[in-house]
Amino acid sequence: MSLDLSGARAQNCHWPFTYRAPEATEAFDAVLNATAACLGVQPVADQDVNHPDSYDLRTFHTDTAQIAVSIKDKGALQQTYVFLRISTP
Predict the structure, then answer these.
(1) For the chain, how big is the Rg over CA atoms in Å?
(2) CA atoms within a 13 Å half-sphere pointing along the CA-CB vector of 43
(3) Bridge partners (DSSP) listed for residue 79
(4) pLDDT tens-digit profile, the chain (89 residues)
(5) Which of 49, 54, 78, 87 could serve as 19's disulfide partner, Cβ 3.0–4.6 Å?
(6) What is the arrangement of strands in the sheet containing 9-18, beginning at the earlier edge strand?
């Protein structure tokens, strides 16, 4: 559980993988597709960022929550993470 900058509460889950492992991309796609099917809406892709590690964020907006699914390569850690964040006002 965390608070974001607007004061909204967020629940966070993450799954670590070996750096740039294909399984990380597969997990990202699976969480993204399951979330879209569950909510019945399509996500909005985040803007590209100028960062040395790769990053892909998709956000779902509902009347009661904002759900974010992302994949992030962390070169310094030699890990790739898949994140799921659910924020509610």
Answers:
(1) 13
(2) 23
(3) 18, 74
(4) 888 777 878 999 999 999 999 999 999 999 999 999 999 999 988 766 556 677 899 999 999 999 999 999 998 999 999 999 999 87
(5) 78
(6) 2-3, 9-18, 79-88, 66-74, 55-61, 44-45
Residue 32 DSSP SS3: helix
Smallest CA-to-CA distance from 71 within 11, 6, 7, 21 is with: 21
What token pair was written down for 42?
């399509």
Name residue, tokens 């964020």.
Answer: 57
In the three-class reduction of DSSP (H, G, I as helix; E, B as strand; rest coil), residue 38 is classed as: helix
**Residue 79: which residues within 8 A CB-CB, separation 6 or more?**
16, 17, 18, 19
Residue type, 7: G
Q: Is 25 helix (H, G, I), strand (E, B) or coil?
A: helix
